[in-house]
Design a protein that fits this description.
Elements: H1 2-14, H2 18-30, H3 35-55, H4 61-84, E1 94-99, H5 107-118, E2 122-125, H6 132-142, E3 146-150, H7 157-169, E4 177-181, H8 187-193, E5 197-198, H9 202-216
């Protein structure tokens, strides 16, 4: 019974049947399953499988969006249960993310933020047109160990460099890994400005985030 429910929850995420996910989660809880067990044994593996399907070209952005929707619906049910049991799903890492000052492009950044969140990261999404100081201050107050910056214009790419310099000036550079992305951003640019990594799409961003966090541990 338990394994069957876990398999059905997993399939509802992987197959994009978000409408079924909530009901299956409630059935699992009624059957006496622990919220953390559902997360660790069904939801997390499901999101990893979705990421693998995207990476190999079997899935596309709409598939990712639907899977993320299902994961969000699952967590809306599970989070109150975790609190009741005084349990907590330990975050993989704490991320501050935003589109840099002068740039108002949001779709790609928001999708990365969503996918990081449903993959177990604590995400602080600052939105778009984010000043250098806001990145630094939020990284400090949240004790973030990862910072992600998007720039979709060649004229705003330089702000990514300014944020990294400001992190160093604030004494935070040794504790915060930096990843950058955006249409004009390249691996060479990331290396030039001293970023710790570059991601060209949402799934590689999640993978990079995991690698950077693992490297700190």
């Amino acid at each position: 019974m338990t394994s069957d429910l876990l398999a059905k929850i997993n399939a509802s995420i992987v197959d994009g049947d978000a409408d079924s996910t909530e009901g299956l989660i409630r059935r699992a809880l009624e059957a006496g399953m622990e919220p953390l067990a559902i997360i660790d044994n069904s939801l997390v593996p499901a999101m990893r499988e979705v990421g693998e399907k995207f990476s190999c070209g079997e899935y596309f952005l709409p598939n990712l969006i639907v899977a993320a929707k299902g994961m969000k619906q699952a967590m809306l049910v599970l989070e109150p249960e975790l609190r009741l049991r005084q349990q907590e799903a330990k975050p993989v890492g704490t991320v501050v993310i935003g589109t840099v000052k002068g740039d108002i492009h949001e779709i790609g950044k928001s999708l990365v933020a969503t996918m990081l969140s449903v993959n177990g990261f604590e995400v602080h999404d600052l939105g778009v047109d984010v000043p250098v100081e806001k990145f630094v201050e939020t990284a400090r107050t949240t004790k973030a160990n990862l910072l992600g910056m998007s720039a979709l214009l060649t004229t705003t790419m330089v702000v990514q460099k300014k944020v990294i310099e400001a992190l160093a000036a604030a004494g935070l550079r040794n504790t915060v890994k930096v990843m950058v992305g955006g249409a004009p951003v390249t691996r060479d640019w990331a290396q030039e400005i001293g970023a710790d990594g570059y991601a060209e799409d949402v799934i590689s961003a999640v993978g990079l985030a995991r690698e950077l966090i693992a490297a700190r541990q």
